[in-house]
Amino acid sequence: MSQHRIVITGIGLTAPNGNTLDEYRNNLLNKVSTIQNIETRYMGTVHAGVCDFDPLKYQTKKSIRIGTRAASIGIYCANEAIGDSSIDWEKVDRSRVGVYVGTTEHGNVETENEIYNISQYDYDTRFWTHHHNPRTVANNPAGEITINLKITGPHYAIGAACAAGNAGVIQACQMLLLEEIDFAIGGGVSESIHTFGIFAAFNSQNALAKHEDPTKASRPFDMARNGIVVSEGGCLYTLERLDDAKARGANIIAEIAGWAMNSDATDYVLPNPERQAQCMNIALNRAKKHVEDIQIVNTHATSTKQGDIQECEAINAVFGKSESTYINNTKSFIGHAMGAAGALELAGNIPSFRDKMVHPTINVDELDPQCNVGKLVIGEPVELDRVDAIFNNSFGMLGINSSLVVTRFHD
Amino acid sequence: MTKQILNTMTKDGIKSIVLKIIAEIAPDEDLSNITPEVRLRDQLELDSMDFLDIVMELRKQYGIEVPEADYQELASLESCANYLEPKFAALQGS
């Protein structure tokens, strides 16, 4: 295995409260949630995080019509990330670019739409669109990105439930380490708010958030939390080996210092704090960091009764004795962006290296004593003397855990 | 559109219908200067998937079936009108 260092050189994102990192960060520091009520087929009104980026910035009307919402999110994020990286894209050998897009699921939106479509024709399958297969193959978002950007290197989807955003970044790092590519686009996307099934399933599981004020519906760690707010969003990073980034004079945003993924092997839905803690410790060891070296831990907490408690148990087991570690949560602002969550939440904290601020967790009116974990930043941002390392947790169903350690770049 | 109007559809009317479908399928294209006798693919960015969309819209909007063996009849606006005219006329009996 090579000893290359992997760095982030560009960030492209769309979140319910921002279509650029600056806008998103500003809203996180100013406690702005834009969770809203939307109408969903069969379900009626639900809370959701909706993105309002302009897909026509990088796509033709025809490609939007033929393609998928998930791919539009991916294409927007990929183009924004490449722009942010300041690489001379026209001169890039695109056979050496890899695209790794994490998704929680893909194809539910298009399948539901087609079933509804043929229901208008007495379920006659002659009216089923020929676009269905290219829209619903798992690699659709990554593949549409390659078509849009004329990338001829590898592309594929990383399916890792709600850990997929982190997993997309990890896959990108691994392929750079293996030298199979020279430039990576990695992260995650989700358009899940356009499928009623995800809302209906969380509702049947008694895990769908409900609040009279939608901006207060996502409230991890609060006593009154009652479930998940489903959101769409995306975040893709450009990643490079340090030597390559330095050679082209890139602005190095941060370094991926370590990561880990493991599996609970216990339950379809319920998390396993012991395995989560194990995942965190593996990531710390690989990054050669002690818990005191970490200033910010982004929690995965989704605002469910049980999941938040169990993650706090895991974080306490790992970071409980650290006096220098602050803990926050981004889903309280943007809801759960599913396959994008890990990558998007990491991006929300990365500006801390520069501005030294830790964005808060909002909507905690009464802290659940079982979620009273370490230095949880509630309500107002906290300013630190310096931020050198961010720890990014992202967990998912079927017991998939992921942790990323991202550090301020030092040559 | 009522069946009565469809039954008496002129070739120009059929061309308008096809152009309207193409406008939905290829929304980035300028359709103001299409030459009816020239192949659509020589004038527009249309691929085989787009022609399947035209076939689907004719099925959905007018109940007209275009079998695969006849796809070549949709090559130009003029050939569309020639091919579809009897099919629109046949709607009278349906």
In short, what is this structure?
Chain A is 33% helix and 22% strand.
Which features does this protein show?
heterodimer; A: 411 residues; alpha/beta; 11-stranded mixed β-sheet; 14 helices; 16 strands; 33% helix; B: 94 residues; mainly alpha; 5 helices; globular
Describe the structure.
The complex is a heterodimer of chains A (411) and B (94). In chain A, the strands form 3 sheets. Chain A has an 11-stranded mixed β-sheet, with helices on both faces. Chain A has a 3-stranded mixed β-sheet with strand order 2-3-7. Chain A has a two-stranded antiparallel ribbon with strand order 12-14. Helices cover 33% and strands 22% of the residues of chain A. In chain A, helix 3 crosses helix 6. Chain A has 411 residues and is α/β, with parallel strands linked by helices. Chain B has 94 residues and is mainly alpha-helical. Chain B has helices spanning 3-7, 11-25, 40-43, 48-62, 77-90.
Helices and strands in order:
The complex is a heterodimer of chains A (411) and B (94).
Chain A: E1 6-14, H1 21-29, E2 36-40, E3 44-49, H2 61-66, H3 69-85, E4 97-103, H4 108-119, H5 132-136, H6 140-149, E5 155-159, H7 164-177, E6 183-190, H8 196-204, E7 230-231, E8 233-241, H9 242-247, E9 254-263, H10 273-287, E10 296-298, H11 305-319, E11 326-328, H12 331-334, H13 341-349, H14 352-355, E12 357-358, E13 375-376, E14 382-383, E15 389-396, E16 400-407
Parallel strand pairs in A: 3-7, 4-5, 4-6, 10-11, 10-15, 11-13
Antiparallel strand pairs in A: 1-8, 1-9, 2-3, 6-8, 9-16, 12-14, 15-16
Helix pairs in contact in A: 3-6, 7-13, 10-11
Chain B: H1 3-7, H2 11-25, H3 40-43, H4 48-62, H5 77-90
Helix pairs in contact in B: 2-4, 2-5
